[in-house]
Write the structure tokens for this entry.
Amino acid sequence: MLTWPQGVDRRIFATLDSTMAEASRLKDDLTGPTWILAHDQTEARGRRGRAWVQPVGNFSATLIWRPDGPVEQRALRSFVASLALRDAMIAATGREAGFSLKWPNDVLLNGGKVAGILLESADAHLSIGIGVNLLAAPQAADVEPGAVPPVSLARETGIRTTSEDFLSLLAPAFANWEQQFTTYGFAPIRTAWLSHAARLGEVITARTGTTEITGTFETVDETGVLVLKAADGRHAIAAADVFF
């Protein structure tokens, strides 16, 4: 295992309603960055309030802390978390092939979704919720139509790991990328993320609550915004669900 990052706490629970909710309850009593891990969640949720299905043995945790820097840069931590997840999965499996990063906050393995990220900001705190299909993937009926099909780390690689062992890999990986972000800014994070981006240069569809844009995935710009080249020109998309 990698060395646990200095100054970072962890709290492990058998069952919680959700790690994000526990982070919110604890935030005023924490003295530093804290990982909250639950072996089971009864009210987990994903982006846009969607339910998050957690089969037994999978990973669910939230990191909460008071980040430095402008509030408008907090959302860029989704890229930090994506890179950290990829590193942790490589460390857990001993393989690099097959892992890619889907804008804005998913990790893919062999084209299927193996992990998701949820960011919430409240007062001076930022919470990053992370779910990883370590041992089992949710059923197709549990995800929205057209979404990337879920896969598990165990089924795709043959490697089984526990949530606590995975946290021991993820926490130092995140600390490493976070240090790069706070020291050098978003530029090196953006470059690293784009080098592993899923469907870069290919046609994808971005859906917001009111619009749908299909075009070539050109890049992610210096503010983390998705840039698509469509028939009517270039579109800069700050928030959307992406479909392949």
In short: The chain has a mean pLDDT of 93. The first strand starts at residue 9 and ends at 16. The domain at 203-243 is CATH 2.30.30.100 (SH3 type barrels.). The chain has five helices and twelve strands.
